[in-house]
Design a protein that fits this description.
This protein is of the alpha/beta class. The protein has helices at residues 38-41, 58-70, 72-77, 91-100, 117-121, 159-164, and strands at 14-17, 34-37, 46-51, 82-87, 108-112, 125-126, 129-130, 133-138, 141-147. GO terms for molecular function: thioredoxin peroxidase activity.
């Protein structure tokens, strides 16, 4: 079942995550993965969650993530408290990808959707990988949810599309 505007965000969504710390800020530094209970953490927040098929891939690294990084302030001005990107990559890769993009702190999270479990649960996975999509969650309610239908496209899941719907 895919998510759509008006739905409640599922109550059992848990991703894997390595929190950023200054002491482990180097791209080669490994942290310890922990569970990130998105349902609980985001219950009282406005969140933009977007998904990419893979970290360090051309479309994701050149066309998708940079748009969100460049628009952090505009998203915040619309009340967004957290921006999160997920992929089916392991948490070590996602952590390194965040560091490669010079993202620090907890306003922009690089989360792992192991085995594309969440993406599969909403019908937006492809061959064990997360699809390319964006979801806006406002205090537990989905207000925007769109998946890309064209390979390599960043039209409905990019920062500009999300900003237009906030």
């Amino acid at each position: 079942m895919s998510l759509k505007a008006g739905d409640s965000f599922p109550s059992d969504v848990v991703f894997k995550y390595i929190p950023w710390t200054e002491e482990s800020g180097e791209i080669t530094a490994c942290g310890i993965p922990i569970n990130f209970n998105a349902s609980k953490e985001w219950a009282d927040k406005k969140v933009v969650l977007f998904s990419v098929p893979g970290a360090f891939t051309p479309t994701c690294s050149v066309n998708h993530v940079p748009g969100y990084i460049q628009n952090i302030q505009q998203l915040k001005s619309k009340g967004v408290q957290t921006i999160a990107v997920i992929a089916s990559n392991d948490p070590y890769v996602m952590s390194a990808w965040g560091k490669a993009n010079k993202v620090t702190g907890d306003e922009f999270l690089f989360l792992s959707d192991p085995d594309a479990k969440f993406s599969e649960s909403i019908g937006w996975a492809n061959a064990g990988r997360t699809g390319r999509y964006a979801i806006v969650i406002d205090h537990g309610k989905v207000t925007y949810a769109e998946i890309e239908t064209k390979k390599g496209a960043v039209e409905v899941s990019g920062a500009d599309a999300v900003l237009a719907h906030l």
